[in-house]
């Protein structure tokens, strides 16, 4: 699992039919302090996340193990909206 912030949305009017009805969001990976790290991924949203929210996402074969993405051709899925995280006793983020 990776920590990320939703930075945008993606709309594709023509796509693989197995992806019909799935919302796709642009996610920027974050480090443990909440700073941007690495690049962006396009992830299927399985939990109703919105732009600006901090999320947990999985990529690779793990992305196809949610009820929403099972047997779908996706490589990343948002599977949780983060309410808070702490590192070494310090609160890094509170929604």
CATH superfamily: EutN/Ccml
Q: Given the C-alpha coordinates, what overall shape results? A: elongated
Low-confidence residue ranges: none
Indicate the radius of gyration in whole angstroms: 13 Å
Helix content: under 10%
First CA to last CA: what distance?
19 Å
CATH class term:
Mainly Beta
- SSE string, helices as H and strands as E: EEEEEEE
Major sheet size, sense and barrel closure:
5 strands, mixed, barrel
Helix/sheet category: mainly beta
Count of DSSP E strands?
Answer: 7
Q: Roughly what is the average pLDDT, rounded to an integer?
A: 92
**CATH architecture heading:** Beta Barrel
Strand order of the largest sheet: 1-2-3-5-4
The number of helical runs is: 0
What's the number of domains? 1
Q: What do we call the CATH topology?
A: OB fold (Dihydrolipoamide Acetyltransferase, E2P)
Percentage of residues in strands: over 45%
């Amino acid at each position: 699992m990776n920590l990320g912030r939703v930075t945008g949305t993606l709309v594709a009017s023509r796509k693989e039919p197995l992806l019909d009805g799935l919302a796709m969001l642009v996610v920027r990976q974050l480090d443990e302090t909440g700073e941007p790290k690495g690049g962006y991924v396009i992830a299927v949203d399985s939990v109703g996340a919105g732009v600006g929210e901090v999320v947990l996402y999985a990529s690779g074969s793990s992305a196809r193990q949610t009820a929403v993405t099972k047997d779908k051709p996706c490589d990343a899925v948002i599977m949780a909206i983060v309410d808070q995280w702490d590192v070494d006793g310090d609160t890094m983020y509170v929604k």
